[in-house]
Amino acid sequence: MSVQTPGLKKTLDEHINLLRVVKGLIIAFLITLPCFLGFALFLTYTDFPEKHTYIAVLITTVISVLVASAYSTRNVKSKGWMNGCFVGILYVAILYIASSIVFLSFHIDIQVILSVIIGAIVGCLGGIFGINLR
């Protein structure tokens, strides 16, 4: 008698649904881009201090990751927190790489570390929320 072991794809699908994660990331950036463009216009035409831009980026990140992770875990059977966390971390990583390329500065400071932690926590919360939306 032979015992069948589940394949890697099935194991990954049980823990992290990659297609749903990618769709969640797309949704996150579809939320992020208009928010950033609107904020850029706001900064251009007002005297808003640029030192507060990190707060606007953080708020946009939280909203985008929360919605995206909830969406990506909506039809997942289990491990919603893990899928959501994965969405949050990937979102922050992509955002960091894109901003580092634009500003030509690849350095990790406390804001980057906080962004990753916040992205992971908010992703977990969105994943938990999304899996319970069924």
Account of the 3D structure:
The longest helix is centred in the N-terminal third of the chain and has 28 residues, at about 20-45. The chain has helices spanning about 10-15, 20-45, 55-70, 80-105, 110-130. The chain has five helices and no strands. Helix 2 crosses helix 4 (about 80-105), helix 3 (about 55-70) runs antiparallel to helix 4 (about 80-105) and helix 3 (about 55-70) runs parallel beside helix 5. With about 130 residues, it is an all-alpha fold. It has one domain (about 15-130).
List the helices and strands and how they pair.
Layout: H1 8-15, H2 18-45, H3 53-72, H4 80-103, H5 110-131
Helix pairs in contact: 2-3, 2-4, 3-4, 3-5, 4-5
**Strand composition percent:** under 5%
> Secondary-structure element order, as H and E?
HHHHH
Number of domains: 1
Which spans have pLDDT < 50 for at least 5 consecutive residues?
none
- What is the approximate shape? elongated
For the sheet with most strands, the description reads: none
Radius of gyration: 17 Å
Number of helices: 5
Measured between the Cα atoms of the first and last residue, the distance is 39 Å
Helix content: over 70%
Structural class: mainly alpha
The counted number of beta strands is: 0
Question: pLDDT average, as an integer?
Answer: 86
Protein name: Membrane protein, TIGR04086 family
Pfam family, one: DUF3792
Keywords: Membrane, Transmembrane, Transmembrane helix
